[in-house]
Amino acid sequence: MPESRTAPPESVAAQEHPTTGHRPTLRDQPTAAARPERRASSAPTWWVWAAAWPVTAVFVLSNAATPLYVLWQRDLGFSKGTLTVVFAFYIVGLLGSLLVCGVVSDRLGRKPVLLPALALALAACVIFATATTVAALIVARLFTGIAVGAVVSAGMAAVTDVAGPQRKRLAALLASCAMVFGAGLGPLLAGVLSQTLPAPTVTVFIVEMVLLATAVLAVLRMPVRRPTAPAKGAWMRVPGVPHGSRRHLALGIAVFAPGITATSFVLSLGPSLLAGLLGATNRIVSGAMAFAMFLAATGVQFAVQRMRRRTILTAGAVSTALSMVTLIVAVHASSVAALVASALLAGAGQGMGQLGGLSLLNSTVCPQRLAEANAALNVGGYVPAGLLPVTAGYLSDAVGLTAGATGFATVLMSLAVIGGLVVLAGHRRMPEPS
């Protein structure tokens, strides 16, 4: 069935953006000769869902180690500070990957980025399953971060490519939900399998290798084309967006960054809080808490998808701030219920910040810069998500888990409030779907 062609865009050099008032320059947009034709996607809707599966499969690995850290701590004898460093090497790999993968994906296509990323994820599974040193855990986390950096740029852009211009809202929703659902499924699988089956630090990674193998098949069959006229510039650079979309990127980061930092804290130090402070040592409990956190992140996105972007982002900032208030209550009252409530609110905050940010970028960034734009959003989110939990981990070693968690929560609550105020101040320049 032949694809229908969309109408050619009007000259961007002659018109101002209807919501930002910015008059695009030739530097912001590709030349007429370089601008590829945009086609309506003929792929069936089920392929849009299938295109999101590799994102889910890799994100299952991203947090599968969460309930297992207490076992490695016991066997290898490392501190909470070292634990957060192991976690942070995932952020290091992810950020390094984002400097390259978004640009490479926009130039060479989605598959040349996704297939090596899946191979690296499979290698990480093997290293995790055979790890006997902290160095091995660091390498496995580093490989995992690189793979995740590839899928949050190329993988999420592939979902948008398969969906086509007419299904951008669905693409943003599925790409975002694939990420948070996979991130929650990983610790749940690890918690259940490690608690009920032999070889607690091995079984989950064997299961994950099967999931990644199916993701490889999905990528090989995915109906995406190589770019016909990619943008120019350096191959490795800090990812960014065209000038007219920078404000929208900043609005997304203002809410997404505190949200994902909150969930990163729960993933890195949540099991330690449950085991050391609250007395809950069952790994199914810590895995289920992480799963519930990301299930909240997934469900809230379906619940708010029809709302205005300003409302989504503001609600995300409020949810993250409330999560930190509840975290302070949890550590001072030694309350498992309050800690779970904090995790659910953190998940909702990340989910709404992520959906709002991706929706803004999908609606304002041209397709040949979309993977780079997704990378830019995630760089802005993962930098504080790597730094603040590590700081909290070493602070907890020095002054105690209660004081360390309280200090972290106070700082992050302030950042979430500032993010909400930034959204409220910039709402007049925020494009809304018709």
General description of the model:
InterPro entries: MFS, MFS_dom, MFS_trans_sf, MFS_Transporters. It holds the Pfam family MFS_1. Its main location: membrane. The chain crosses the membrane at residues 46-72, 84-105, 117-140, 146-163, 170-193, 199-220, 249-278, 284-304, 311-331, 337-361, 373-395, 401-425. The chain has 434 residues and is mostly helical. It has one domain (45-224, 241-429): Up-down Bundle (Growth Hormone, Chain: A). It is 73% helix and 0% strand. It contains 14 helices and no strands. The chain has helices at residues 45-51, 53-64, 69-76, 80-108, 111-130, 134-163, 168-196, 203-221, 246-277, 283-304, 309-333, 336-364, 370-399, 401-425. Helix 2 (53-64) packs parallel to helix 7 (168-196). The two termini are 30 Å apart.
Secondary-structure topology with pairs:
Elements: H1 45-51, H2 53-64, H3 69-76, H4 80-108, H5 111-130, H6 134-163, H7 168-196, H8 203-221, H9 246-277, H10 283-304, H11 309-333, H12 336-364, H13 370-399, H14 401-425
Helix pairs in contact: 1-6, 2-6, 2-7, 2-8, 4-6, 4-13, 5-6, 5-8, 6-7, 6-13, 7-8, 7-10, 7-12, 9-10, 9-11, 9-12, 9-13, 9-14, 10-12, 11-12, 11-14, 12-13, 13-14
